[in-house]
């Protein structure tokens, strides 16, 4: 039975777990310290949560005050967040990768009074702008020896360590225990729980106001849609908790049900951590799954011979077995036997690298190429896809556990409506809900609009911008283009990404990019072609591929020229561009391209914190190189 009710607040989720699901001495969190994974009980976590609450109340933090985070995922993030949530303060999580001037903007716009900072590097970035943040009175350093970084600085805000905060808070807790309880009980579901800043691909960062009701109801309907999550599950958290996807789909979901949460050490150590903690559920982004796919394919087919034949045989029988099961049919004994052999010889070895216990993966934050989803399905690893935005808390659709339609992001979750609106006439083609689902339903393509409990309260201190995205009828306009296919939502692209060529043809970049991303030689690409006669692209070649095939070293990637001019490398990429172009309409095909030496980055302003390319920034920054692409044909 779903443990979450619609009237709960965020701190109620954890309180309900310790009241009804787990004794206080059960393991709640797993954190790697030095070489060992340490178990943290509910009691240990609650003691620190209460210490945070007592300290914040003692320094005057009240309901509605904003408290900021600038740190990576860790148990301390959870302690600090739950500590402020249960006194009614508001979480302002800042992406650790943002440049200092954007951190300054967010702290000033939100009026944050206190900030928890995770590392010396982030601390130095913060103190370079902290004196410009007039509301900031307290900086909490989540590492020792921060004094060494304060030499020759004259900060207005006071600085202390998180350990000092916990020590003081523990001493204060007996006197503040009743106050904390009273604060928790005074929180309304309509109160703001968090401000999550999103800049999109253009414009100034906007603080998305998400209420306790937004977040709790998103957890509730996700559990309704995926009822197989229970208190025996273990999540591995590695996507940033400063993003709403990880906050809801890992942190809040796990906390609501009583699952364990293990915190990955870093993206670089994720594969190692997966083998160590053996998660049953992992939330991830498409790029991670693409990399796992690429490594598995390379490992299975490299060198040819018997090994490659067995690998390809296993995948082919995995595909046949999956298709039978998805059609509701029972595979015949011969196919079942072949599948068992494929599992033993190939699939089990790939699964072992994920820890061997995965119940399913959830992919979000971008479109998962259909062939990647099918690949994991052939292996017997279930990948559920979801869709949503920061402004929708985030999930508005997610794959049902028992019904997979590859290339879609699933069924509408309960309690909301999704409409598809013609972008020219504004006619709403259809309004779909959980109850209206039909497995054969399809509709034309248009802008995806959403209404219901998931839609944000608005943008912080930006009523005009709020009115621009939430219309008079309560529809939130996502800016995403999509349709319904077999009853499930299918994303085509972003409205702002749409290219209209010189002949009036509409081209959505994402599906075109996904075709070219089938090449293992290509890591990323950025299509250009608005108001042009043909499509060109800036392509980021696979660094691993360049090292293997051409023997390049670090000096190659550190050259001053942003672009690769070596004709041999250009020809190597062009082989796959020509081959894959046959899968596209002529007006969608790349006619010319430039090879960028290094990936786009957040630090350079080319990507948003959710790793989407800022089209205007990229086109302006590389205008000279793009212009050359239209002189070569």
Automatic annotation (TrEMBL):
The record ties this protein, via PROSITE patterns, to: AMP_BINDING
Q: Please give the Gene3D superfamilies that the UniProt record associates with this protein.
A: N-terminal domain of ligase-like
Keywords of the record: ATP-binding, Ligase, Nucleotide-binding
Spell out the Pfam families in the cross-references.
AMP-binding (PF00501), AMP-binding_C_3 (PF23562)
**Stated name of the protein:** Long-chain fatty acid--CoA ligase
**In what residue span(s) does the AMP-dependent synthetase/ligase domain sit?**
22-460
| Species this chain originates from | Albibacterium profundi
* A molecular function (GO) term: ligase activity
């Amino acid at each position: 039975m779903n443990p979450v009710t619609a009237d709960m607040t965020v701190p109620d989720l954890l309180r309900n777990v310790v009241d009804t699901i787990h004794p206080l001495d059960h393991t709640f969190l797993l954190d790697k310290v030095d070489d060992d994974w340490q178990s943290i009980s509910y009691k240990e976590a609650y003691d620190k949560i209460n210490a945070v609450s007592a300290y914040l109340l003692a320094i005057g933090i009240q309901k509605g005050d904003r408290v900021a985070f600038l740190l990576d995922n860790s148990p301390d993030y959870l302690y600090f967040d739950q500590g402020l949530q249960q006194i009614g303060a508001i979480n302002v999580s800042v992406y650790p990768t943002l440049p200092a001037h954007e951190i300054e903007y967010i702290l000033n716009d939100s009026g944050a009074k206190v900030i928890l900072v995770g590392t010396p590097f982030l601390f130095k970035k913060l103190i370079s702008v902290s004196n410009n943040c007039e509301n900031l009175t307290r900086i909490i350093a989540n590492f020792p020896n921060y004094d060494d970084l304060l030499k020759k600085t004259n900060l207005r805000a006071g600085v202390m360590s998180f350990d000092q905060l916990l020590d003081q808070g523990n001493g204060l807790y007996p006197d503040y225990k009743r106050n904390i309880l009273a604060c928790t009980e005074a929180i309304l579901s309509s109160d703001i729980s968090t401000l999550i800043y999103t800049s999109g691909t253009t414009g100034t960062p906007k603080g998305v106001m998400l209420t306790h009701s937004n977040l709790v109801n998103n957890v509730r309907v996700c559990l309704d849609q995926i009822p197989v999550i229970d208190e025996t599950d273990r999540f591995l958290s590695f996507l940033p908790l400063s993003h709403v996807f990880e906050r809801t789909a890992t942190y809040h979901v796990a906390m609501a049900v009583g699952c364990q949460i293990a915190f990955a050490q870093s993206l670089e150590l994720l594969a190692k951590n997966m083998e160590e903690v053996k998660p049953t559920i992992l939330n991830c982004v498409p790029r991670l799954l693409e990399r796992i796919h690429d490594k598995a394919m390379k490992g299975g087919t490299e060198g040819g011979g018997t090994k490659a034949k067995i690998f390809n045989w296993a995948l082919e029988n995995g595909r046949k077995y999956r298709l039978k099961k998805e059609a509701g049919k029972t595979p015949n004994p011969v196919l079942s036997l072949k599948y068992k052999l494929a599992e033993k010889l190939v699939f089990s070895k790939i699964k072992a690298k994920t820890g061997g216990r995965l119940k399913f993966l959830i992919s979000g934050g971008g479109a998962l190429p259909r062939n990647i989803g099918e690949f994991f399905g052939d292996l017997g690893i279930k990948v559920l896809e979801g869709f949503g935005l920061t402004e929708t808390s985030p999930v508005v659709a997610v794959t049902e556990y028992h019904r997979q339609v590859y290339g879609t992001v699933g069924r509408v979750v309960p309690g909301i409506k999704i409409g598809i609106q013609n972008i020219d006439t504004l006619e709403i083609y259809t309004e779909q809900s959980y109850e209206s689902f039909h497995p054969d339903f399809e509709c034309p393509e248009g802008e995806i609009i959403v209404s219901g409990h998931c839609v944000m309260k608005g943008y912080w201190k930006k009523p005009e911008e709020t009115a621009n995205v939430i219309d008079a009828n309560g529809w939130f306009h996502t800016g995403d283009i999509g349709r319904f296919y077999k009853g499930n939502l299918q994303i085509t692209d972003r409205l702002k990404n749409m290219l209209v060529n010189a002949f009036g043809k509409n081209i959505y970049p994402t599906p075109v990019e996904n075709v070219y991303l089938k090449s293992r030689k290509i890591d990323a690409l950025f299509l250009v072609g608005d108001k042009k006669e043909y499509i060109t692209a800036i392509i980021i070649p696979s660094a691993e591929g360049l090292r293997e095939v051409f023997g390049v070293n670090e000096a190659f990637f550190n050259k001053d020229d942003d672009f690769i001019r070596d004709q041999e490398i250009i020809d190597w990429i062009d082989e796959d561009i020509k081959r894959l172009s046959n899968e596209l309409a002529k007006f969608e095909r790349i006619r010319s391209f430039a090879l960028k030496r290094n990936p786009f980055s957040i630090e350079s302003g080319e990507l948003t914190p959710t790793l989407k390319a800022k089209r205007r920034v990229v086109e302006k920054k590389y205008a000279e190189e793009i212009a050359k692409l239209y002189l070569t044909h």
